[in-house]
Amino acid sequence: MEWVIGSTTRPYNALSFAEACERIACAGYTDVAVFAHNRAMPVDSESNATQVADAKNAATQAGLKPSMLLGQTRLDRGVEGAVIAYQHLLDNAAELGAKWILELGTGKEAHYGIYPEVMRQAAEHAETVGVGISLKPHGGISLTAKELIDLYHQVDRPAFAVSYDPGNIIHYTRGDVRPEQEVDEIAPYTSTAIVKDCALDAENNPNVNTTAGDGEVDFYRVLSGLVRGGFKGPLYVECVGSKEHAGIDRDLAFTLGYIKGILSGL
User: Fold this and answer.
1) Mean pLDDT to the nearest integer, 190-201
2) pLDDT of 201-237, one tens digit each?
3) Do 183 and 164 meet the contact criterion of CB atoms below 8 Å apart?
4) How far is 111 from 120, CA to CA, in rounded Å?
5) pLDDT tens-digit profile of 90-118?
């Protein structure tokens, strides 16, 4: 099976989006997930046609498919306003060429009640434009597999599923919950996956700026569990350990080979 393994632009977020795409392509990746650069998203719900076209061109000129876009849910606008904003985000994602929105949920308890309804209506629109919404563990309402599965059933729409991120499970629970223990349960609900490790220090302080294989995540166990549960990709590398650009280049290339090696054995 030919696996799609992309990289997010997060490791290069101090560079321009175009520069990040060039480096990701040089590391051997075919796909890119669009994240923020200098705290601004290249494409979001407010982007105009020119901005979307510029981001698409930057990716394609580097030889990458911009197949995932980091999402943002404007829950402060209430159900109607949040749905309208998310529909605009989905339209822009489709124009960009993205197949997935990487959804982060919410950490504000005041928004827990409206979140499933916003996602339900957004997912209905997502179906019409051919984009999937993939919710990752990110603390708050989407802390672990238990919360993710509960939300999956509450939303109950074909375009809404899970993006499993094992590093975030360790990060947000400080290692109290292990991805290896819940991956078999979450696998059937998973449409995309994030390749992210997490290191814990002596006081269990987490650090996700860790190259895959250097932290707490057992990637062989996590990936084999996902595959056994029917997962077929895509996967996106989000974080690495290095901070300097040359080191990031090396870490990204290493991670691609590392994950491909595990998957090839499955």
Assistant:
1) 98
2) 999 999 999 999 999 999 999 999 999 999 999 999 9
3) yes
4) 15
5) 999 999 999 999 999 999 999 999 999 99
- Rounded-to-integer distance, Cα 23 and Cα 137, Å: 27
What global pTM score does this model have? 0.98
Count of domains observed in the chain: 1
Task: Output the six-digit token pair for 36.
Answer: 């923020």
State residue 1's pLDDT score.
83
**CATH (domain of 219):** 3.20.20.150
- Whole domain around residue 117: which residue ranges? 5-264
